[in-house]
Design a protein that fits this description.
heterotrimer, A: 299 residues, 10 helices, 9 strands, C: 395 residues, alpha/beta, Rossmann fold, 2 domains, 6-stranded mixed β-sheet, globular
Amino acid sequence: MHRLTIPEEEYMLSGHTACLGCGATIAMRYVLKALGKRTILSIPACCWAVIPGVYPHRNLEVPLLYTAFEVTGAAISGIREALDVMGKEDVNVVGFAGDGGTADIGLQALSAAAERGHNVFYIMYDNEAYMNTGIQRSGSTPMGAWTTTTPGGKKRMYKWEPKKSVAEIMVAHNIPYVATATIAYPEDMISKLRRAKEMKGPKFIQILSPCPTGWRYPPDKTVEVSRLAVQTNVFPLYEVVNGKYRITIKPKNPKPVKDYLMMQGRFRHLTEEEIARIQKHIDENWKALLKKERCSQED
Amino acid sequence: MAIILPEDPTPIAKVPSTENKTGGWRTFRPIIHYDKCIRCYICWKFCPDAAIHFAPPDAHPSPKEALAKFDTVEINYDYCKGCGICANECPVNAIELVLEEAGGEEE
Amino acid sequence: MKMILTGNESAAWGARLSRPKVVAAYPITPQTSIIETIASFIANGEMDARYIRVESEHSAMAACIAAQNTGVRTFTATSAHGLALMHEMLIWASGARLPIVMSVVNRAMAPPWSVWTDQLDTMAQRDTGWIQIYTENNQEVIDSIIMSYKIGEKHNILLPSMVIEDAFILSHTSEGVDIPEQEKVDEFLGEYDPAFKLDPDEPAGFGSLIMPEGPYMEFRYKMALAMEDARKETGEVVKEFNEIFGRNYSPFVEEYRTEDADAVMVVLGTIGSTAKDVVDNMRGEGYKVGVARVRYFRPFPVEEIRNIARKTNMLGVADRSYSFGPGANLYAETKSSLYGFTDIPVKNYVMGLGGRDITPKILEKVFKDMLLISKKGVVDKEVEWVGLQGDERWS
C-alpha cells in the first residue's frame, strides 16, 4: 500500500524531451492528475510544443492540439463550442501556454475568450521569459532579471520593470475562478484545479514553473526555488473565487527576498540597493494582496 | 523506387514517448538507500520525468517494522535524466547522486 | 425557392444550407453583412450552430481550426485586412488538413484606405494551400459554398476553400437567386465525416514537431497531391451539382464565344459579366473576341488555359490587382502555363484597382488593343496599366 497526497494516475509519460529539472513538466503532471483522462489540451508555441517529442511521439495520455503562438484563447474556444454542440460537455478543455504566449502575444485571444465566458481552463505555466527560444524577456519576467534581451552590459540593461500580473488582469475579466499555484505545492495546485473543475465558465490558473536553464540554478533546486518564491512572498499563492480573494498559503515568517534571488544566476548581478528595491516592491505587492483579501471577504 | 509517404494527412503523433530512453542524458545517477527511505513518496511526487514508480514492500524491505507494509519506490533509469530533484527533496537524505561513470554500467 | 439577395446574403445562405456547427466571425467592411445575416439566422432558430464572436480575424480562423479539428463543420468570412491578418492561420488550416469554408469579399488593401473591390487580398494568399474560387454572380456564391464543402471534405482532399466575391459589385448588390432545397443539399453533402478528430479515447498530438529528416516534406507533398486530387474531383462534383440543382457550371474556366476568337480575354470574378456583354456587342460589329472566366485560381486550370490558347491567336489577361513581379498574378500564371506550349502573344492589362469602375467602354478598348496584337503577332508592352488618370487611351 501507499498513501499519497496527490492522485496516483499518470497522464504524462516518461521519455519526453524537457530539460533536466523542468518545472513546466511537473506542472503538466499535476494539471492532468487533477483533471483526468476526459481532457483535451491545446498548446501554442512554447517549451511544451517541444517537450512531447518529435513526431510521431506524444507524451500525454490525452489529445493535444498544437497551435500558433497567439491563439490559445481562440483555440480552446473553438474546441469547447465544438464539443458542446456534439453533446460532449463532460470533456475538460485546457489551454496550456507559457508566459510569453499568455502575458504578451496571446493576451488578446485570452482576454476575448475569458470575456466570452467559454467553459474552459487556461493554464499559464510561468517560467518568466521566452525559454523555448532561449531566455528572452517577456512581460512576465520579474524585476531585476537578466535575460538574453536584457543582458545587463555596461549600462546595466536588466529587466527593471515590474512583472505584469496576468492573474490580476484575469480577475478584472470577472470570470468565476482565478488562482496562482506553483509546483512546490502540488496539493494546493490540485485542490485549486479541482475547485475550478466544479465551476462553469473560464478558469485561469497561473503556475510559477521554475526553469533551471533560464533562471541559472542547478536542476535539482527546481522545487526548492519554487518553494522559496512562496516563502519570500515573491509569488503568493491565492485564489479568487467569483471576485473573492483567499490567500491559500500564508508564510508565517516570510524569508528575505534576497534568499530567493541569490539562488539564481539571473539575479546574481544585483547590488544590495537593487535587492532592497525589489524587497520593497514585493512587500508592497504582498500588502496590497492582503488588502484585497480583506476587502473582498467583507460583506 | 517507391516514395514513402506517411499514412496520415497531417502529423498526428500517436507513438508513446516511452520509446525515447532519456536515461542516456544522465550525468548524475540517483541511488536510493532503502535502509533510510521512509516511504514518503516525495521523490515520486516531484519527479519531472515520471521516472519513479511504486514497487511492492518486499522489493526493498525496510529495516523499520512500521514501514514494512508500505510500498517502496524504484527509479526507472531508462528515463531518469539525473536532475537530482528527488535527492534534493528527500527529507531523510536517502537518495545519493553519484557520477554516472562511477556508478557503473546501465542496469 | 427564388429570393432577391445580395452577394453577402447569398454567402450566408450558402453557409446556412451547408449546416456548419461552429461559426467564428469578426466584422469587416464589406463582409460584415454575411456574419450579420448568419447571426440573425442563428438568433431566429433557422440555423443550428454555435457562433463565436471572436476579437479578430486571426482568432476567427484559429477557432475554426480548433473546432473543425474537434470534429465539426465550420464557416467564417472576411475581407482584405482581415484576410491578411489571418495569413498565419490560413497556412495552419491547410497544413492541418481541415476543410474549412470561408467567404472572402475582395477588397483593396491600405494604405490608402479603400473598402472597394480589388483582388490583392486573395492573390496575396494564393500560396496558403487553400482552394480559391472566384465567383461572378450571387447564384454562384451560394452554390460554390455548398460545392466547396463537398470537395474539401473528401478524404483524399481535406483542403480548405475560399469562396470569393467582388466587394459591392456582388456583396451589396441584389439579384434573383435560386435557393437550393435544404433536403437536396443535405443529401448532396451528407453528414460531416471527419478524417480525424481530437478524442479523449485516442490520445494523439495534432501538428507536432518534425525534424528535417522527418516527413515534413512528405506532408507538404501530400498536400500537393491533394490539390491535384481537388483538380480531378471538382469536375465530378460540379457535374453532380449541375444535375441535381439544374445549373450549368463549367468546372474551372467558363468560356464564352472562344471557339473562333482572334483574341480571348482571361478574367476573374465580375469582370467576366461585363466582358461577356462587350463581346456580344463587338461580335455584332464583326470583331471575333471571346472571354475565358477563370473560376478556380487554386488549383490553377493549366490544361484549360492551354486548350483556350489552342483556339485563339492572342490572350489578354485582365488583373484586378498587381504583383511586383513579371506582371499581375493571373497573367503570370497564365503565361507560365503556356510556356513552351504555344508562342501566341499574351498581354497583361492591370485595371480596376481600389474599386475603380471597369466599364464596357474600357473593356472594348482593351479588346481592340488585343485584336491589334493578335494581328501583328507580337506584344508591344507586356504589362499595361489601364485607365490611369490622364491616360486618354482607355476613356
